[in-house]
TrEMBL record:
Coiled-coil portions: none
SUPFAM superfamilies, alphabetized: HSP20-like chaperones
Ranges for domain SHSP: 21-132
Protein name according to UniProt: Heat-shock protein Hsp20
Listed InterPro entries: A-crystallin/Hsp20_dom (IPR002068), HSP20-like_chaperone (IPR008978), Small_HSP (IPR031107)
Amino acid sequence: MATRFDPFREMDRLMGQVLASDRAAATMPMDLYRSGDHYVLNVDLPGADPGSIDISVEDRTLTIRAQRSSRTEQDVQWLAKERPAGTYARQLTVGRGLDLDAIAATYDDGVLTLTIPVAEEAKPRRIEVQRRGSATAIESSGTAVSAA
């Protein structure tokens, strides 16, 4: 039985491997969840130099940048080099109601964690409604909770 060699398929496979490693260098997998009065954003930045991490907020855009350097040793013959190097960058558009001036950031074991508090004006609050000698407490959504 003859085996057929398709040079275009092999070239496509090799290009896919090269492009996949370039895409991996540019991505930052993340998790985002809300816990109480704040949001928590966990971003994977394996091998990033903590000094290269830059977090900025402009208007409603949160930008995270980090640098991962490749090893540049002399007289080395690489047998496999799959770990991406370069600049990681990610931008997120955040909604209103967050206190962007109070963001806290930590970097531990290759994971950048941002804690973003909910702004005071965006937190739910109760409004007392007075009605001829009785008070009814309602939430800001307009739903009656209790009547006196």
